[in-house]
Amino acid sequence: MLTVAPAFAADLARRAPTPYSGGPIAVTDWTGLYLGGHVGWGWAETGYFGTVTDWSLHQDTNGFLGGGQVGLNYQMDNWVVGLEADITATDLSGGTSDPAVPDSRFDAGINWLATLTARAGYDFSGVLVYAKGGVAFADQDLTWTAGGESATADTRRTGWTAGGGVEVALSPTWSARLDYAYMDFGADDTVFTGSVAPFTLAVDQEVQALKLGVNYRFAPVPPVPPASRPY
Question: How many angstroms separate the Cα of 179 from the Cα of each of 150, 162, 224?
Answer without folding.
Answer: 38, 11, 34
